[in-house]
Amino acid sequence: MKKIRACIIGASGYTGAELIRILYRHENVEIKALAADRNAGNEMYDIYQHFITANLPKVVKLSEINMSDIDVVFCCLPHGTTQEVIKNLPESVKVIDLSADFRLFDAKLYEQWYGHPHKAVDLQKQVVYGLCEINGEQIKQARIVANPGCYPTSASLPLVPLLQKKAIEHDGIIIDSKSGVTGAGRAEKLANLYCEVNEGFKAYGICNHRHMPEIEQTLSEAAGLGVQVHFTPQLVPMNRGILSTIYVKLSKGLSANDIRTILQDRYKDSPFAHVLPQGKFPSTRDVYGTNSCIMAIAEGRNAESAVIVSVIDNLCKGASGQAVQNMNLMFGLPQTTALQDLPLFP
Amino acid sequence: MKKIRACIIGASGYTGAELIRILYRHENVEIKALAADRNAGNEMYDIYQHFITANLPKVVKLSEINMSDIDVVFCCLPHGTTQEVIKNLPESVKVIDLSADFRLFDAKLYEQWYGHPHKAVDLQKQVVYGLCEINGEQIKQARIVANPGCYPTSASLPLVPLLQKKAIEHDGIIIDSKSGVTGAGRAEKLANLYCEVNEGFKAYGICNHRHMPEIEQTLSEAAGLGVQVHFTPQLVPMNRGILSTIYVKLSKGLSANDIRTILQDRYKDSPFAHVLPQGKFPSTRDVYGTNSCIMAIAEGRNAESAVIVSVIDNLCKGASGQAVQNMNLMFGLPQTTALQDLPLFP
Amino acid sequence: MKKIRACIIGASGYTGAELIRILYRHENVEIKALAADRNAGNEMYDIYQHFITANLPKVVKLSEINMSDIDVVFCCLPHGTTQEVIKNLPESVKVIDLSADFRLFDAKLYEQWYGHPHKAVDLQKQVVYGLCEINGEQIKQARIVANPGCYPTSASLPLVPLLQKKAIEHDGIIIDSKSGVTGAGRAEKLANLYCEVNEGFKAYGICNHRHMPEIEQTLSEAAGLGVQVHFTPQLVPMNRGILSTIYVKLSKGLSANDIRTILQDRYKDSPFAHVLPQGKFPSTRDVYGTNSCIMAIAEGRNAESAVIVSVIDNLCKGASGQAVQNMNLMFGLPQTTALQDLPLFP
Amino acid sequence: MKKIRACIIGASGYTGAELIRILYRHENVEIKALAADRNAGNEMYDIYQHFITANLPKVVKLSEINMSDIDVVFCCLPHGTTQEVIKNLPESVKVIDLSADFRLFDAKLYEQWYGHPHKAVDLQKQVVYGLCEINGEQIKQARIVANPGCYPTSASLPLVPLLQKKAIEHDGIIIDSKSGVTGAGRAEKLANLYCEVNEGFKAYGICNHRHMPEIEQTLSEAAGLGVQVHFTPQLVPMNRGILSTIYVKLSKGLSANDIRTILQDRYKDSPFAHVLPQGKFPSTRDVYGTNSCIMAIAEGRNAESAVIVSVIDNLCKGASGQAVQNMNLMFGLPQTTALQDLPLFP
Predict the structure, then answer these.
(1) Nearest C-alpha of chain C: how many angstroms from D200?
(2) Burial of C74 (0-12, 13-18, 19+ CB in 10 A)
(3) CA separation (Å) from C16 to B197, C12, C59, C98, C325?
(4) CA–CA min distance D114, chain B (Å)
(5) How many C-beta atoms surround the C-beta of residue A189 within 10 A?
(6) Assuming Cys at both sites, which of A169, A266, B316, D296 could form a disulfide with A161, CB separation 3.0 to 4.6 Å?
């Protein structure tokens, strides 16, 4: 098989680096071009010393890349800059966008949360939301995939099947999420400094984070009506991992065990979505460096409610791993290719 | 003033060590005796090397202590062992118990959650629950104080005034709490090992933790009716700190701003309970090593709900600091004595 | 090609778990049996929850394994227990021992440092010391390989070529090493607890650690005369990684640049040993989860001395990764098989 | 007693914040003014949220401070900016400079290491090097004190008495130091980001760090001849703490025990310098948040050499704590005032 020629735009961020880690071992992919305008002319090991042992192309400006040599583009640019970049790519190229620029399908909602008008409204219509376990069939046909946010992936994988089955009530859902610090990216700002983060825990953007409308869009589609969620993102002093604690009210007559069974049935053939048996709960460590999502369900304080715990690696299943999973689907490969490693522990 | 002669029973655990740190600088206290049966005969610096520069009494067996030389006992024994120890102390000694043995006032509830009958039911009637900001007046008169649990302290300080004022609905309260690892004590077990904890986040005891009935007891008393809460304790890879994220439904006609005002009024003269202005949220770092509780309120997803964030240092305000605050109250001292230091940061 | 049937004895420790991680992705290996006497009857995910998604054999007692079904045994037992276990294995089985039991070739030296007589002196004569970059040819012929210690690997890879070439003086070598906490294993003891280790740094076993004679043995062989080193092991609050800072005196007429060139020449074809150019220094992060050793050389305070920095992942190149590299060599496979992944960062 | 009116210039860095923490509890000090030009107009809690509970003056520009109201200035400005600032302070003000600007007494050496000519050569002559345990008597008389660097403090406290007594050889001293991340300050740069630092260890500035000439200056004065040291600074993923591992050759006829005795004698009346008995070694945790320096001595590989381990809290004894100790000495106060707290552990 001819190798897929991949290009990463925005290779200098953490999601870019994680993509390189995964694609480098992908037997069907050649990393053909790496773009990062501010870092153009450098080797990747100048940007990330841990690539010193890797054989990678030199970093170039986006404008220097001949897109006719490229089969797939991974776009890792900051939010707000991607719509125009992707608009200008040739039709021959498949695109997986890791930014938030194409995740919200309602242009008004986009403008409300991102502060500027959507710049590629027509293109948006072609886009498929790349939550692989839910939209796998459409992804296979897609040219452009909007790779889901990290928090939304952790919340939607357990909630979508339950809302589709009407197993839980659609209102009053509370998603209390905790993320490792890579979720904040590689920006050189005070809040990201080691000494500010280490030995502390804090909440930010309570019910006011851009991933909230993204989650609501996915859940509303699943429920067939408008769903609103309380969503709190929080910062854990660790590099990788998201754990979402989700509080739901059960539909009449159903128990926590029932909804566990629903999820187990739904994901029984999934290579990446796992549901733990009663009494077991996941740690983010259980998915460190992997593309897995592990879920568990406990009874709430009373029999009418349940608490769902869901973990992913925010950089992998929450970003670059799912991006490669999307690529695998789009190119007809087994979706697990290059994504089968066991977690790194400890 | 004659110094208060203090004795710590169970000095070898983390709460014992934290008590020593605080009492050592207390101008009105002499650390007279340290008991730890398994470590009897050792110096404290054999148990904790960081005490190498301190001048402390040798560790002895409890039975070796002459209680007529003691004015106050801090009891830091494991849960389940304290009831009989305290029963046997002379009336002349005031007692602050940091275990859970006297926190639940309903002996049946105690038995249900702790798995054995209460062994000092009569004594229980004398006990005051030592949540200083709420029960300050009773504490001043008490001979025995049950020092509150760490999670309950973080949850009750914001919730009690709101329930007393009927500013929030008493049902459906969700308390999603995150704790540093000192909360698990100094036990030599797998789950406490560095390599198991570091770089991970996990939930444990979902809606099934012994602090849940303790919280409910306090909130029910505040509300004047039975309150049930969904409570999830979680483990953060850091030494100290608890952050509780609390989801509440507002009483009709009230806003998030209203309940902030209620809390600000309630705590405006408190040296330890602080309520942040709108738009500010605390980190556990803001209370590192201190006896403070800092609270903040955000709007929920809709105007009928709010999210409360509350932070404490679990070892200090959540245990030994509050214990000294209780002692200060019981002995007629300013409650801030030895507790006024600013947080250690970074 | 028929798969190599591998057995891990002592699968429940960190090196056992790391072996599973690597062998699970090895295209030429089948993990045939996992032994851990105390954990016999369990699944690996009962011992390490992160294996919940893996398809692995159940853990059994060593005595339950039919060794005629096994081609290679990885022995991960504690020091002192391995000599008799390996003595009893059939000749048909190749053995890679990750304990220290066969690393010291002088039985008296072994007894002096390990406190009991060597129990398999005859077997010792067959053993090859598995420092792959140095002893590759002998390893290819070996039946039993003593997998080097983590500190010795980090120190010997830079020092052996320099001593062989007489480029540095053989006396006065100082090896100041720093290790992540996995180096201490999974023992449930106070010194390994999260709250004892986190936010601290300490030395232990100064010039009195069992890896010192192991290093000296390797260096003496390289130098052709007795070499003594000052060796200080130290503990860093992180899971993985060793960095050794090595102070050497240069042979007359040679500069720091000269010895860098010697190492670069020596390792120019090595897939795992890398020497950085002047002015660059490695972090342990650069080898996180990989089998690489990265070295760098700086001038000392004067032109007659140099400082060498060397990093490895203590669990991978320092233990299980090198063990698989040894297996690859022993079975005629490319030594990089299953060991080519890029580091996990961040 | 009238309170000492203190001013901190450069209050927004970590050493400024640590000074506030210590001075806030100092019974003889009033924090009168806080200057930080870029942050002028803010409250300290806008710069550091953990000051939310403190009652502190608003931050102003340096030019706004009336220096006739000030008794002592702590200067926490970046290196290179302090010489002119201090030159312009009135004679009535005592000065403790936490930068490196007045630490090197040879203006040429200063220029060589700091890259620009010394701008206050005359003033330099008045300056006393504020290593309290060594220069206590001169400090009492000083108007301007150059507060020592963190690494130099950790290295000089054990080495100065030994060189003064000629108990160790003055050449070939190796100082391998490891520091927490606060040592790098609060600069918003890539190398200081949480995800870059966490889970890693690295060396930087090998035998090329500005603290090396500072150490050599102090040791040369102690030895009465020119001393050169090999000095390697390294970064540990933790907030606070320095541990220096120091390799020395013993003078003829002396043993490791002898030099331990020399240090014990020298520091037997010191409130902050402690020497551990044989077989005990300090962790940086033992001095967390305190002004102590704890030292220990081990035999090296042979009887002619020794290994010294020394720990301090880099922000406290290594910076702001020692600065307050200097102030105490300069104002005739007990040097321990405000510096007596036990370490925070865990």
Answers:
(1) 5
(2) buried
(3) 19, 6, 12, 9, 15
(4) 28
(5) 11
(6) A266
Which DSSP string do the residues of D238-274 spell out, in sequence order? SSS-EEEEEEEEBPTT--HHHHHHHHHHHTTT-SSEE
CA gap B105, B103 in Å, rounded: 6
- The enclosing H or E element of B195 equals helix B194-197
Q: Which of B197, B321, A199 is nearest to D285 (CA)?
A: A199
User: What ipTM does the predicted assembly reach?
Assistant: 0.97
Given a contact cutoff of 8 angstroms between Cβ atoms, the answer to whether C241 and C179 are in contact is yes
Q: Is D328 helix (H, G, I), strand (E, B) or coil?
A: helix
User: Would strands D229-235 and D202-203 be described as parallel, antiparallel, or unpaired?
Assistant: antiparallel
Residue keyed to tokens 């059939």: C90
Interface test with C, best of A52, A197, A269, A280 (most C CBs within 10 A): A52
Residue-by-residue DSSP string for D306-318: EEEEEEE-TTIII
Residues D136 and D329 sit within 8 Å (Cβ to Cβ): yes
Tens digit of each residue's pLDDT (9 = 90 or more) over C266-311: 999 999 999 999 999 999 999 999 999 999 999 999 999 999 999 9
8 Å CB contact of C290 and A53:
yes
Identify the bridge partners of residue D250 per DSSP, sorted by sequence position.
D168
* Nearest alpha carbon to residue B292 among B145, B132, B166: B132
Q: How far apart (Å, rounded) are the C-alpha atoms in residues C60 and C37? A: 7
Contact residues on chain C for D212, CB-CB shorter than 8 A: 301
Give the containing element (helix H, strand E) for A31.
strand A29-35
- pLDDT at D1 > cutoff 80: no
Q: Nearest residue of A to residue D236 by CA position?
A: A194
Q: What is the mean pLDDT of residues A206-234?
A: 97
- At D130-182, the pLDDT tens digits run 999 999 999 999 999 999 999 999 999 999 999 999 999 999 999 999 999 99
Provide the β-strand partners of residue B173.
Answer: B229
HSE, side-chain direction, 13 A CA sphere, residue A66: 2
| Total residue count of chain A as it appears in this document | 346
Which residue from B minimizes the CA distance to D292?
Answer: B53
